[in-house]
Fold this sequence. Notes:
By secondary structure, the protein is of the alpha/beta class.
Amino acid sequence: MEKEHLVEDVEAGSSPNEFQAYSIDVEQLNKMNSEKDQEAFKRLGGAAGIAQALGTDLKEGLSDAGVDASKQAFGVNSFPEKPPPSFLSMLLEAAKDPMIVILLIVAIITIVLGAAVPEQRAHQGWSEGLAVLGTALIVIFIGAGQDYSKERQFQKLNALKDNIEVKVSRGGKQVLVANTEIVVGDVMFLDTGDKIIADGVLIDSQGIVLDEASLTGESDPIKKDAVSDPWIRSGTTVNEGSGHMLVVAVGVNSEWGKTMALVSEAGDDETPLQEQLTDVAAKVSKMGVLVAVVCFLALLIKWLIETGGGDASKINDNGPLQFLLYAITITVVSIPEGLPLAVTLTLAYSMKKMMKDNNFVRVLSACETMGGATAICSDKTGTLTENRMTVVEGWFAGTAYPQVPEASALPPQLVELLKWNCAMNNKAFLVDKDNVVEFVGNRTECALLVMLRKLGFDYVELREQREADQVKLYGFSSARKMASVLLREPGSGGLRLHNKGAAEWVLRRCTSLMRPDGSTEPMTEARLAEMIELVTSMAKRGLRCICLSYRDYAANDPARPADFFEDANEVDNGLTCLAIVGIKDPVRKEVPDAVRTCQKAGITVRMVTGDNIHTAQHISRECGILVEDCIAMEGPVFRAMPAHELIPMLPKLRVLARSSPEDKLTLVALLKKQGEVVAVTGDGTNDAPALKESDVGLAMGIAGTEVAKEAADIIILDDNFSSIVKSVLWGRTVYMNIRKFLVFQLSVNLVAMISAAVGALYGGVPPLNVLQLLWVNMIMDTLAALALATEDPYPELLDEMPHGRTEPIITGYMYMHILAGAAYKLVWLFACLYGLPRVISAYAVLTPDEYYREDCSTILGDKGFNETAQKDYCNIMGYCGFPQGDTSHLSCELVGEWLRFNGSAVPADQQNAVCIPRGFPQGTNCPRNEGLMSAQKDMDKEWDRAYLKSYKPALSVLFNAFILAQVANAFVSRRIQLEYNFFKGLATSHIFNTIMVLITALQAIIMQTPINYVFKVNALNGKEWGATIAIGIGAIPFSWLVRFIARLVRPVDTSSNWLGVLRGSRAKNITARGAAPMRAAAGRTLSGRTLSGAPEGKTLSGRTLSGPKTLSGNPNTAVKTFSGNPTLSGNPQQPQPFHITARTGSSRPPSARLGSLSRVAPEPMRSAGSGSSAAPLLADPSTPRTPR
């Protein structure tokens, strides 16, 4: 039984949309849709019947009440979000690190033994293990917290990826709504490049072709029609055509939603920078493990020697367990797990900040790659210009007007034709909002709609009048450079084609043109030349020239093939030119400065546009792209030029006009072969291959199709070139922040490993204990990563050359800073460790003589020996050579005993020396010796503890100085070139400042509060704090000195010069690695075939030229223009650009042709009197003119 859902509206006069009972339920609708049940579709009455059942109208769409009711009945167009990982799961993940696991296990064993063994318990043997356990857990919690925060941030950013706006009809109006607001019953507009975001059935189609590969895996596009195959699936894209669709399934009920429910989202791959740093981390980790093993073995061997092969009772008392804990800690410290974390942090932080700069990053690696960009291939319209197109002048039926004329000033026949052309041959629409007209759709078409309004017509009413008369719509394509619509005339029933497109292309297809009186005249060669000259003059002023034309066809023509109207190339011929309008799209005021910034940064900016060569030149000069000694080239010439001729021109190529998407793809591929890192902008569906091929694809957020956005790595939300420059700055910031962190961390790693090895091998006293090393590790891997990875960009980064494709992550100057920073800290570390106890008595280390002579009574008293035994045993141990002093020492009581006994010297054997004077025979033990041996054992046990305690004052100073030097090193690491000012921009680095204050505050707490017991340090006095602060701050003037010496050794003028030194032979933004492919490619086509032995005219696409090329032009002009068209004669007094022309009949070799120069006029055609056929500007020389 069918369910009925009622939408109530108590207002009078409610429409059927507002009070509608659904005669089809969710299950029926979904079943029909999922099974593509054609029978059920027909039984319901097709799209019209389903619309009636859903309470919608195929023209008017849903009302507001209908939208709300549909959401209640059929659901919303969203998918269940993947739940973010919980903090607990992040904790478990962080705790899985093998070294952390081993550290925790050893710490627990230490705690157990320290608490279980009475002697260990008496000396709080469990405390160090507990402190290590606590610190390790803190490290785990901080790491998990950062990962959790990062995941939440990425989830928010990723959620924006799928947010798009779509065009629908609601309440009789065309509106833009978010894809998540689409409901069942909506009437959606479909156009080339759109991504389908819900399931539906086709209402009408103008040659719609869908790419369903994402669902079916079939690579061949599928043509749809409203009768035999009306089913439209979400997740697919519109390859060609346009039309309307009735939405029948949304969200989880759509086919895409069902597919998404079955699969889990794949994890992000590592970015190239993360891969590089993982490699660096692996190498450093191996060194750390080696040092840890050496330290463990050295300490273990020393312990075995001192204990005579080992003492099980000392295994947890500065014994093997402590050595293992120390070795593991060294490994934990040496493993720079902070490197990948720093990349993730800086990428996440940068992505968030880039959103504010109108850069939406879809692919994580694009952040870092953009920083190395050496070339940007930019579109013109909307990126370099404002994309607010306006018709400012034009030629209307034989009369030129400096502005759009009144309708009354034009012939009635022309006005009639113009209004239908502008309204019907057009898929854009205008939205009036707060007295501002917003453009939706193609901006050129929007400009024509505004012109139509100025002529006094409402395009919405015109479309409603003739919508039923539309026979076929031929959408714009980059190959044809035009669009057309075929309408059936109401009275006669005949067919009329309305055409518009690039003026020089449309004029080629015209056989007549309209006169001022409304009559027509033939398009002779002379008239064509005049029209081309008119177009050229308008284009040179930066105007986009659009020609509007028409042609009548008989309703029935027996001689016409049945499929004649399927081929737009056949239909768009024999046209009558009505008007040529000049559309102004001003350059964005910030673009020239942005282009200069790129050029200063070593980035070559190229304009790749479909516009006329003259328009492109004008705009590119305004932008500062086309400068002296640079080349402007047309697409037909570009694609016809052999590789060995084209590649040497690439460094000077700045403008590629009348280019096709294939030309853009070819250009990107060639530049990448030369070692360039290429960023490409694109907005059309056909731009997707070039966006994918580039290192960084930049799609336009406003004008871009969904296909282009899907193919892109970054979406420029405001379509502005200056936003692209900001993405370059952020990319360089990411790279620089990672380099800063590398300098900071690797210097600490180096110090930690060297000091640990020296302490273990030489002195036996590690300069930093386990807990201190873990604190250093927390500073390095966590806090410093957060501090240095979140530094904001600074403009000086754009004064440097790009790092390109091959530059190593660690440069020569970085090695210098790492070694210098490590050397400074090691000098002070060893000075505190070995120099301080020798120089200042307050830090003197306990000697064995002092220990046995001064501390003996106290220790033996604590062990239960009486005063007599204490005096006796302490004298023997301190002066008699058992173990300190010697048997002849005057203070040794045994000397007097042996003198009184038999007048001889004290024997070297301890048992005989202490027992014989007491009356025991030689070789016989006695209670005195047994007591002495017990006292010696107790003294041995306490020696290590007393010795390390005596080192505590010096080690306390060392620890504090080391940490403060690390804080200073963080400031120094903010600038890793040869700059003197480390503090520039510090006022705005709030995260960095906060973390530095936090580290310093925590260090003060560690040193001055009872927690210092756990870290095994003493509280410092004022002088000691002053000294350690001075040592720490001293890292800054020391770095200044290093940079000063470096400047003396290798003088630098600018930052780009020193980068040039580091990069060696990179010239013209081409890396050394890219030079070899360039030379090799000079003899190959893009397909990889060599040109040696091949015909001279072989082209990049494999086609042959129609004839050899010659170079003609003014040899004194700096800018060259490569045009694939014949030239006109003209005024030789005006300086003209170079043109490459494609004439037939020349037999000179290419080298001879390129050396031949002659003056030409600006008009790209032969004179009318030459008698030869002329091709308009930008025409492909291999394409013949349409016969008339």
